[in-house]
């Protein structure tokens, strides 16, 4: 699958503070690339904290999102990458280090699909109705 997400792994000598101090300029990112190949940038590192396997942040100005607080879709890229890099077969603990932030538990299934567990916040509530072109 083509996710159009660029994965940037920081060296293991970087800290959580280094990751949290990043402040990409959305205007400059948009000026440098039109979004045709990259729609988001994932920055990650092996967690220096024992409570997490890895930590990350996700920037997607091409989607109108300077930084996504907690991103399930980014973890569909991160989880297989880290499971392979760290040779982990058990569920992984991850932290997305945005201002709001969030913790996730991730399990890569044998068929390659991903189970994502974590807390959610309702940001939109409504009803969806099937579209009937004859009613327009």
Shape: globular
SSE-based structural type: alpha/beta
Reading the helices and strands in chain order gives EHHEEHEEE
The largest sheet, given as strand count, sense and whether it forms a barrel, is: 6 strands, mixed
Uncertain spans: none
Mean pLDDT, all residues: 93
Helix content: 10-25%
How many alpha or pi helices? Answer: 3
Radius of gyration: 17 Å
Major beta sheet, strand line-up: 1-2-3-4-5-6
What is the total tally of β strands?
Answer: 6
How far apart are the first and last residues' alpha carbons, in Å? 35 Å
Query: What fraction of the residues are assigned to beta strands by DSSP?
Result: 25-35%
What does the model show?
The protein is α/β, with parallel strands linked by helices and 136 residues long. It has helices at residues 16-20, 26-32, 72-85, and strands at 5-9, 40-46, 54-59, 92-96, 102-108, 114-118. A hairpin with a 7-residue loop joins strand 2 and strand 3 (54-59). The longest helix has 14 residues, at 72-85. It is globular, with a radius of gyration of 17 Å. The mean pLDDT is 93.
């Amino acid at each position: 699958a083509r996710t159009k997400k660029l994965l940037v792994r920081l060296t293991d000598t970087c800290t959580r503070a280094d990751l949290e101090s990043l402040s990409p300029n959305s205007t400059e990112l948009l000026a440098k690339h039109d979004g045709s190949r990259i729609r988001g940038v994932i920055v990650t590192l092996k967690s220096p904290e024992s409570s997490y396997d890895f930590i990350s942040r996700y920037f997607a100005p091409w989607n109108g999102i300077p930084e996504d607080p907690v991103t399930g879709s980014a973890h569909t890229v991160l989880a297989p990458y880290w499971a392979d890099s760290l040779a982990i077969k058990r569920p992984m603990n991850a932290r997305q280090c945005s201002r709001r932030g969030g913790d996730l538990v991730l399990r890569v299934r044998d068929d390659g699909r991903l189970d994502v567990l974590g807390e959610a916040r309702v940001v939109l509530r409504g009803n969806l109705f099937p579209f009937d072109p004859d009613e327009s």
